[in-house]
Amino acid sequence: MSFSRKRIFRLPTPQATTIYVRPGYNRVLAEEFEALKAKRVGLVKDKVEAHSQGDLRENFGFKAAKDAIRAVDRKMTALDRFVARNTFIEVDPTGWLTKPTATLQLGHVTTLEKQDVATRRLHRFTFLITTHGETATDPETGIECLPHHSPLASAVLGLTAGTQVKAALPAGESLLTVVSIRNPTREELDRLLREIKPPEFDEDELEG
Known about the structure:
The chain is an alpha/beta fold. It has five helices and seven strands; from the N terminus they run βααββββαββαα. The chain has helices at about 25-50, 60-85, 150-155, 185-190, 205; strands at about 15-20, 85-90, 110-115, 120-130, 145, 165-170, 170-180. The longest helix has 27 residues, at about 25-50.
């Protein structure tokens, strides 16, 4: 997917990434971009109207509209880059209910033990390895969504139950143990998979 828009900033193109998403994610991206374009049109009208009202040095309406246009431009540029840099493959979560569990894959529920190498502290978590952007927690079971492209998921995907691996995570080096692997239930998926939303970008991406 590609959006037709003049690029204001030009950065080195990073290596392409494949991101797995739920059906409808590509449509949400396109709708978000169109909504930003429509918002920008309205802001430009506000800017033109404010410009006609006199001295720009004390014209707060003009300054506010100008700042709002810049903010929208940054979001559009970040979304444009996000789409250009990645390939999105839509996957149906119904297939997660019965897939083989010999190795940990996208769609599995796994219990992981994480021991911090520096402090020796041991933590245990149960995750659903899920598609891009999922962050929900099941209030009934305590299962958390863990996006497949996150550093923690990337370190354990493909491992078998009982396997231990050392991984360099953002919080520090850790020993990770895959305690168990199973399929989710339909009820767990219903509670964990929320409405698809467009991506949020951090300040570095908006300022870049």
